[in-house]
Amino acid sequence: MNASDSVADRITAGRAVYARNLGVPEDEAESTLAARAGAQYAREAFLAAGGPGWSGTGLTDRDRSVAVIAALVGQHVVDARLITYLNAARAAGVTEEGLAELTVLLTAHLGQPAASVAMATVLSTAPLAVLLKASA
Prior knowledge:
Elements: H1 7-22, H2 26-37, H3 39-49, H4 52-55, H5 61-74, H6 80-91, H7 96-110, H8 112-124, H9 128-135
InterPro entries: AhpD-like, CMD-like
Organism: Micromonospora haikouensis
Domain Carboxymuconolactone decarboxylase-like: 44-120
């Protein structure tokens, strides 16, 4: 996908990106995002996600998820938006240790308040098996 693709093609590609990131079937992506942010926002988000940022070949989904996590933490976002990209990062192969290391790295650049609440979100959304292993 690139910026010269048709609007319809970019929206279709963006819907697929959001479905993957939200962890829902493609036919549910629009209603899921619209429920969170409204139909107009969803359409614009699909259009953007269908472009080179999310559909280009220079970055992996892992790279993109880590970049979005860093941006959200930098803005003190720790709600469903951060959880979406924590789960996307996990699905793309980022481990719990990797997420913890990312928050430590972000502490050095963003400060402790933003990173500490993000780490609390990482821990509260960790898969149960990881939490049980850590407590053993």
